[in-house]
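Problem: given the chain below (255 residues), write out its structure.
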Amino acid sequence: MMRYSCALAGALAIVLSAKPEAWAADSIPPAVSAAVADKNRPEADTQRDANRNPAETLAFAGIKAGDKVADLLPGGGYFTRLFSKVVGEKGVVYAVAPPPRPNAPAGAPSPAAAVTAIAADPNYGNVRVLTQRPGELRLPEPVDVVWTSLNYHDVHNAPNGTESFNKAAFDALKPGGTYIVIDHAAEPGSGTRDTPSLHRIDPAVVKTEVTAAGFVLDSESDVLSNPGDPHTARVHDPAIRGKTDQFLLKFRKPK
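Solution.
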């Protein structure tokens, strides 16, 4: 793990406390505000809100009541719960988790364990869990939004990588549908150099690869950016964990 001098660590503590300017309260849809305020969310999730800015992020994504959302590689389900409340009873959230690794230790929890528990909770009855490999996405119906958060760099390190991943996302969407990609930013111009070591990726690479799959870059937001991140630390380093510079990209499938 990369180490910092005491002086640099102190400087990081100062610059990393800076936050992007918050959106005006009246720009956040009521359904999004209600989802973030959901009392059923676990404390572990709400404690992460200060860094993940869920209200602003969901508002930018444009997810709304009745939407069908594919949450790819949902991890612990932080966004899965939020999606569930925003899309409501007429919407569906497909939480797509990978199958267990062949070399996983005996007794290791399934990657789908967390979202399976969420789907079993009556408060999130519109969540459907699918166990599929990232590049082999097969949904029961076309969706309005495909979402992946802090995963794209890892997909890059897998066989067939992001080419099949992006194609699967494209094929899963309705015409005009939205593909949201959030990830830890690497140093500009670094390409994919830091995907295996620092778990970061240059956003320019993501834009190039996703548009090559047929998408159009719709917009991007700096709501998760942190200019104080030097982009040189592994994202799990305590000096930067939870405060990395992240990019938020919205792509659209042409109609």
